Amino acid sequence: MSGAALLKSSASELDLDRPNIEDYLPSGSSIQEPTAKLRLRDLLDISPTLTEAAGAIVDDSFTRCFKSNPPEPWNWNIYLFPLWCCGVVIRYLILFPARVLILTIGWIIFLSTFIPVNLLLKGHPKLRAKLERFLVELICSFFVASWTGVVKYHGPRPSIRPKQVFVANHTSMIDFIVLEQMTAFAVIMQKHPGWVGLLQSTILESIGCIWFNRTELKDREVVAKKLNDHVRGADNNPLLIFPEGTCVNNHYSVMFKKGAFELGCSVCPIAIKYNKIFVDAFWNSRKQSFTMHLLQLMTSWAVVCDVWYLEPQVLKPGETPIEFAERVRDIICARAGLKKVPWDGYLKHSRPSPKYRERKQQSFAESVLQLLDNK
C-alpha cells in the first residue's frame, strides 16, 4: 500500500471515531429557525458537561485572586533544617516579644494622650482635629514597627484639599495602616465586629472615617451622601477608598466600583505592592481573623512594600464613571505589576443567583449569534 493510500485510510478511520454533531440536533421537520441559530442554541442546550467545564474554568480564574500561595519550603535537607530552626527561635522567642512590647508601649502613649485630647479640647475643634490626626498617624507607625515594616514611599505626600479622593488596590486591612502612618486619611470601610469594630466606632471616627455594611441595602444612599459631603469639605482629611471592595492577593486586581469615580472630583491613584520574600501580607478574611493575621505578621521577619502616589486623574469629556474607573485601574495595575481580571470582588461574599446567570448566558448567546449573522 502506498503512503498516500495509507494516510487516506488512517484519516477515514479517524473520521469514524469523530462524533457527528448533526446527530444531536433536532430532526429537519422541527427546524423553524436559521441553521446557524439553531445549531448554536441546541449545542448550548445539550452540552451540560461543557457548561460545567466552562464554569469550573471561570471559578478557577476568579478564586485564584483570593488564594494565598505559600512559598516553597526550603528546609528540606539536613543542612538547611538547623538554620530554619534557628530562624523559628529568633522570630518567636526574640522578635515577637520585642514587637509585643513595642506595640504595648505605643498603645500606652496613644491612649494616655488621645483620651485627654478627645475630652478636654471639645471647645477647640481645629486644634483637637490636628492632634487626633497626629496621634492616629503615631499609633499606625507603632503598628508598622511591630511588623518590622520596611515601607518605601514614592511621590509627593498627600495634602488636605477639597474635591479630591484617593483610591488604592486592596490586599489587607494593613493597607490602611501603611498609608495612615504617613497621612491621616478618612477611609470608607466595611464595619467589622470585635475589637476592630470598637476602634472604628471610637478612635477612627475622630478622623472622619465612614463605615458601611454590605448586608444593608439602605446603607448605599447614606454612604453616598456622606462621601459627597466629605470631599467638598475644605478642612476634612483626605478621603481614601479601596474600590475593589475586598482584599485581593496582590497578584491580581478585580473590578473597581464606580462610586469613587462619580463624585465629580479628581481621583488620586495609589499603588501598593508587597514583597512576599519575608511574609505574604494578603488577608483572607474567610479563613483567618484579623487578630491571627496580625500575629502572623508579628512572627514573620518583616513586612516589605512599596507605595506609589500617582498623578491625579480627572473625568475626560464623554467618559463614563465605569470607563474612568477602568482607566485608573490600568494605571495602578501597571505601576504595581498586577494582572487585571474582569470579576466583581463582591462575588467572593455572595454568588449570583441562577436567574442572573441565565440572563448572562442568554446575553452571551445573543452576542455570539449577532457576530455569526454579521459574518
TrEMBL record:
Taxonomic path: Eukaryota, Viridiplantae, Streptophyta, Embryophyta, Tracheophyta
Ranges annotated as spanning the membrane: 76-94, 100-121, 133-153
InterPro entries for the chain: LPCAT1-like (IPR045252), Plipid/glycerol_acylTrfase (IPR002123)
Pathway involvement of the protein, from the record: Lipid metabolism
Location relative to the cell: Membrane
Keyword set includes Transferase: yes
SMART domains in alphabetical order: PlsC (SM00563)
GO cellular component, one term: endoplasmic reticulum
Identification of the protein by name: Glycerol-3-phosphate acyltransferase 3
Keyword list, A-Z: Acyltransferase, Lipid biosynthesis, Lipid metabolism, Membrane, Phospholipid biosynthesis, Phospholipid metabolism, Transferase, Transmembrane, Transmembrane helix
Domain Phospholipid/glycerol acyltransferase: start-end pairs: 164-275
UniProt-listed PANTHER family: GLYCEROL-3-PHOSPHATE ACYLTRANSFERASE 4, ISOFORM D-RELATED, PHOSPHOLIPID ACYLTRANSFERASE
Molecular-function GO term, any one: glycerol-3-phosphate O-acyltransferase activity
Family that this chain belongs to: Belongs to the 1-acyl-sn-glycerol-3-phosphate acyltransferase family.
Main location as per UniProt: membrane
GO BP terms, alphabetized: phospholipid biosynthetic process; triglyceride biosynthetic process
Keyword flag Transmembrane: yes
